[in-house]
Amino acid sequence: MLPVQQRVVMLVDLDYFFAQCEELRNPTLKDKPVVIGMYSGRTEDSGAVSTSNYVARKYGVKSGMPLFLAKKRLEGVDSVFLPVDHDFYQQLSDKIMNILRGYADAFEQVGIDEAYLDVTQKLHGNFEEAIALIHEMKNDVKKQVGITFSVGVGPNKLVAKIASNQNKPDGITVIRPEQVNDFLAPLPVDKLLGVGRKTALKMEELGIKTIGDLATYDAQRLIEIFGRALGVYFHSAANGIDNEAVVEAGEAESISRIATLKEDTRDFEVIIQKINQLTEEIYKELDQKKLTYKQITIIAVRIDLTTRSRSLTLEKSTKGIEALRRHTRELLEKYLNESDLPVRRIGVKVAQLRKEEKKQQQLTSFLQTNKV
Ligand code: TTP
Ligand code: MG
């Protein structure tokens, strides 16, 4: 039997991102504490710290802290406070993500400054080669954009994510499969995705402080206390188990096909035959990319080259071809009732595309955005 291919997954996290963008735009800021603030506008100082550079962090400035408190910590220090310039950070993020995407077999961006890369094929499943690849990525991004980042590498997303926080800024942390348990065991439980303050307190009452404590805690008891979904998740996560794939979210906005009819016509049968061919092709692409659709449009280019479209949005995302066949038929009927010019070209488009979700992915994706 062939051994199961060991995955190699990376999490790239851009360093003190908003503040680093500001330093890039104005290098004289580099040695000073830089604080990026979300100003609420009520009074001059009301609002919260979005992020700060590492110089400011030495003075105790943290994300989420009220701005007046950050000012107090930096009293008498030559420091710089700037408002969030989201468009600028987004532009830099887009450039960086496009570069990083080129290094991955599969790429999944999570938020403006983080992305998972599956590099299993690229590295032939070999963790030894990860460091050289990361240096290449770092140099590339540094040269093309001028931004540094930290990387965690592990056999899955869970380990990669925790590893990425171990060595910041500009760090690299590689955790090989055989090191996973020793790496996780001493860390506090709140390092796990989904363990927020409340859950950590509850676990502490149960005598669980570290991920190692959680890993060896009776799984059945965890299920009784936290419910099935979370109990199972906590048990496997603490044991370093995570099978979630790295998948690009919403790759394409829409998929469409258009074709010229053999003759200009208003004949329902002739047009629907072409539509069915196009539908078949679109369905193949959806299936291959594991996408669902929610909106269907037919587009008619008429003999005077004017374009008309008819569109409908389904109540629920779907992946079947039947709905596509049925609704394009209805849309064509509607169109022919409402327009009298013969059709020259006919097109079909599906939009509001989404990745087909697997049950298991839903829990971790939920935990990604909601600390419980
Ligand atoms: P993070 O990656 O959490 O933080 P960071 O990139 O500033 O610092 P680190 O070097 O530790 O990775 O968040 C990314 C960006 O998201 C950050 O630059 C600003 C923004 N952000 C907020 O606006 N509010 C917050 O509370 C946090 C945590 C981040
Ligand atoms: Mg970051």
Provide structural commentary:
The chain is 40% helix and 23% strand. The chain is built from 14 helices and 13 strands. The radius of gyration is 26 Å and the shape is globular. It has 372 residues and is α+β, with helices and mostly antiparallel strands. Strands 5-6-1-7-8 form a 5-stranded mixed beta sheet. Strands 9, 10, 11, 12 and 13 form a 5-stranded antiparallel beta sheet that branches. The site of magnesium ion has 4 residues, from strand 1.
Topology:
Elements: E1 9-14, H1 17-25, E2 34-39, E3 47-52, H2 54-58, H3 67-73, E4 80-83, H4 86-101, E5 106-109, E6 114-118, H5 130-144, E7 149-154, H6 157-164, E8 172-174, H7 180-184, H8 197-205, H9 211-216, H10 219-226, H11 228-238, E9 254-265, H12 268-289, E10 291-302, E11 307-318, H13 321-338, E12 343-351, E13 354-355, H14 359-369
Parallel strand pairs: 2-4, 7-8
Antiparallel strand pairs: 1-6, 1-7, 2-3, 5-6, 9-12, 10-11, 10-12, 10-13
Helix pairs in contact: 10-11, 12-13
Bound molecules: thymidine-5'-triphosphate and magnesium ion.
The set of bound ligands, ions and cofactors reads:
thymidine-5'-triphosphate, magnesium ion
Q: CATH homologous superfamily of the domain at 255-355, by name?
A: DNA polymerase, Y-family, little finger domain
Mean pLDDT reading: 91
How do the SSEs run, as a string of H and E? Answer: EHEEHHEHEEHEHEHHHHHEHEEHEEH
Would you identify the CATH architecture of the domain at 255-355?
Answer: 2-Layer Sandwich
Query: How many helices does DSSP assign?
Result: 14
| Sequence of strands across the biggest β-sheet | 5-6-1-7-8
Which bin fits the share of residues in helices? 40-55%
Terminal CA distance reads 41 Å
How many strand segments?
A: 13
The CATH topology label of the domain at 255-355 is: Dna Ligase, domain 1
Bulk shape: globular
Bin the strand percentage: 15-25%
Specify the biggest β-sheet: 5 strands, mixed
User: If you compute it from the alpha carbons, what radius of gyration comes out, rounded to the nearest whole angstrom?
Assistant: 26 Å
In terms of structural class, how would the helical and strand content be classed? Answer: alpha+beta
CATH top level of the domain at 255-355 is Alpha Beta
Low-pLDDT residue intervals, each spanning 5 or more residues = none
